[in-house]
Amino acid sequence: MSILVVGSVALDSVKTPFGKVDNALGGSATYFSIAASYFTKIRLVAVVGDDFPDNHIRLLESHKIDLSGLKKVQGKTFRWKGQYTYDLNQAETLDTQLNVFATFRPDIPVEYRDAKCVFLGNIDPELQLDVLKQVKNPRLVACDTMNFWISGKRPQLKKTLKHVDILLINEAEVRQLAEETNLVKAARRIMSWGPTALVIKRGEYGALFFGKNHIFSAPAYPLEDIADPTGAGDSFAGGFMGYLARAGSTSAVNLRRAIIFGSVMASFNVEDFSLNRLAKLDWPKITRRFQQFKKLTHFETLE
At residue 224, does pLDDT exceed 90? Predict the structure, then answer.
């Protein structure tokens, strides 16, 4: 089944110890959409300004992403500027210009409203809930959020979570949201508010999955060359949700595979700046790294 994704499309300027880019294609919905496009069809709802380059539109279209919900309006596109030190787990934001994204109110096209799989990118939880009110009976809803919304709109976020099946956030955000330092206890508390599963993104340390009846841990893929971690979490979400949509099932087996596919897509993403690496993949490369993950985590049972 296809995925409806609502989130940001941006132009990023990023500096890391390994190089820099200016006004490169970015945004949470962009990374998610490109990563997920290798698994299923994507319907994108976002907004950009009239300064948004046509070559970025062509890139999205080349991945068969449905752009009927991508609105180009008068004004400047959302811009983010940040840098990383050798601690690549944490970005330092140097400048944020919301521009047209400041007044973004997702209007889901009629032809999208029958979506069975929905991913709510990192936007205002009130907007996330409004999206769900426009969609008819989705089978699977997942969302992302961040510390800004957790601290500033906690009641609204908890209201949205009542309608979410899977929440994907990082380790610090889990502790902040649950007000609990122990991740196991934090996960159980968050799941008591609505989600049936929680995915904790842990950067270079991999990912943790909490479901109703099981916990699964996956490492990050050991890479020799890392250029830019921007969008890694969104790429992970794209691989994770893309596989679940492709499989058409959230069985325990498929959820575990989805975690690994998420890790695969994140590992490719960090190997270059912006979408440069992620946009040039193919299915054989993806499945080859998936098999390498399997070898990485396999061990024999005791005799």
Answer: no
